[in-house]
Amino acid sequence: MPLILIMKKQITVIALIFCFFQSNYSEGQVLISLLLGDKLNSDKLEFGLDGGFNWSNISNIENSKSIGGFNLGFYFDFKVKENFYFHTGVGVKSPLGAKNITPYSLNNIGLDSLFENGSVTRNLRYFHVPLQAKFMLSDKFFVELGPQLALLNKGTDNFTNDVLEDEDLTFKNEVRDEYKRIDFGILGGAGYKLMKGNGMSLGVKYYYGLTDILKDNLADAQMNRSFYIFARIPIGASKSKGQ
Length: 243
Fold this sequence. Notes:
Low-confidence stretches: 8-29
Structural class: alpha+beta
Mean pLDDT: 84
Helix content: 10-25%
CATH architecture: Beta Barrel
CATH class: Mainly Beta
Order of helices and strands: HHEEEHEEEEEEEH
């Protein structure tokens, strides 16, 4: 069956997932993805869960260090032709940011004094949408490359300092409005299928942001960077392909 017909046939189910996605966060999307996985998978489309661990940083922030976090979402692999796929999906829990940032003024003399010798951890939460070409180099090995779009959902700077114990003094500053809602970059990676055909995949990927994430930034551009270790688990693929 042509790819375009498969996409039309399944667009209603996909729309349900995205509607649910708009009104809830990660746990809800994963649950409905599990429930509807059998309806989506076919010989031309693989659908499943995508998650793992990532280390992210932000360019041009002096002395900053990478911060680790868990990410989770779902993916679609549309088969275009033999060994060539269009890979997309949504990262519904996709943390980026950096730590060990030098504290800045909060325009409050008391707070500035308390955190003068502390540090800031920047937590940016995005919804990520990869748009990649996926090439199967063999039955098990694959590579992927393409752009990725992201929508900023939350942004906080967590100020910490040591008083009696490590980081026992904290303050959270909401900073989402200081950042652009849309981020854009290049995502590339490689992976390995544990079983021929429908098995779980393990792999690595790297996101190289190309846009300055700050609004009205007159200094050096600050761009997202992130290295991922991921696992992808098809949902209902073997059942659908066996029908």
